[in-house]
Write a structure and sequence with these properties.
It comes from Aegilops tauschii subsp. strangulata. GO terms for molecular function: cobalt ion binding; phytochromobilin:ferredoxin oxidoreductase activity. It holds the Pfam family Fe_bilin_red. One of its GO terms (biological process) is phytochromobilin biosynthetic process. Keywords: Oxidoreductase. This protein has a single domain, classed as 3-Layer(aba) Sandwich (oxygen-dependent coproporphyrinogen oxidase), CATH 3.40.1500. The protein has a 6-stranded antiparallel beta sheet with strand order 1-2-3-4-5-6, with helices on one face. Helices cover about 45% and strands about 25% of the residues. By secondary structure, the protein is α+β, with helices and mostly antiparallel strands. The chain has 9 helices and 6 strands; from the N terminus they run αβββββαααβααααα. A hairpin with a 2-residue loop joins strand 1 and strand 2.
Length: about 230
């Protein structure tokens, strides 16, 4: 992933793009894409997927910031429709409800979204639009760290699924999510403008790179640095 995208140059010379990814035990893919155009636009697209042997939610953090406003989605996206699969909902979200209770007033609901998108959101989703002040960005960074730690804890506790049928079902569920992101991602028009349509489509799909432990630690440091720079 890094090798493919490290030489990408934005069509707009004022924009800077950074892409990082890795895979590790239990983690099929963790990847981030940041776009920064000085005094104009800042974008973070960050996602984490478990191996299909685990039915874990997909960690998602998307932020689009201009001098006027910030638009954010932060969630542990369910693999399955939680309006129908109550067991899945209880398994992963019952103990996480304090998270949304903590941040719902600090990061108020951003308004109407499509019913199609709602299928991929969890009960703890943060979908918000706010003025990009230092205070609001501090709250958002705190929320991102809390949600990411929650996902890592779920990953650490997850038991491997040995039923091949269920593993295939998990893989197909991840594919449905990725297809939705590739076709409906609200950041696609911006990426298309910055780097062209072909690179924009590929950047929203999974690509895997195996990192050593040292490289993983470097990735973590770089990711935190990028988030601090954006927020």
């Amino acid at each position: 992933f890094q090798e493919k995208f490290r030489l990408i140059r934005a069509n707009d010379d004022a924009a800077v793009l950074d892409a990082l990814s890795f895979t590790a035990p239990k983690i099929r893919l963790l990847r981030s894409l940041t776009v920064e155009k000085k005094n104009s636009v800042q974008v973070l697209d960050f996602a984490a997927f478990s191996e299909p042997e685990y039915d874990l939610p997909i960690f998602c953090a998307n932020a689009f910031t201009t001098p006027a406003q910030s638009i954010v989605v932060l969630d542990l996206n369910p693999l399955y429709d939680i309006t129908e699969d109550r067991d899945y909902k209880d398994k992963y979200y019952r103990n996480l409800m304090p998270l949304i209770q903590k941040y719902s007033e600090l990061l108020p609901w951003g308004g109407k979204i499509t019913s199609e998108s709602l299928r991929f959101f969890s009960p703890i989703v943060i979908w918000t639009i706010f003025e990009p002040t230092e205070r609001n960005h501090h709250v958002l960074y705190s929320a991102l760290m809390d949600y990411y730690k929650a996902w890592l804890q779920l990953t650490d506790q997850a038991a491997e699924e040995n039923n091949k049928t269920k593993v295939v079902r998990n893989r197909e569920a991840q594919h449905r999510y990725l297809t939705w992101r590739a076709e409906k991602d609200p950041g696609f028009p911006l990426l298309k403008k910055l780097i062209g349509e072909s690179y924009a489509k590929v950047s929203l799909l999974p690509t895997f790179t195996i990192f050593t432990h040292t490289q993983f630690m470097l990735f973590a440091e770089l990711l935190v640095a990028l988030i601090f720079r954006i927020w």
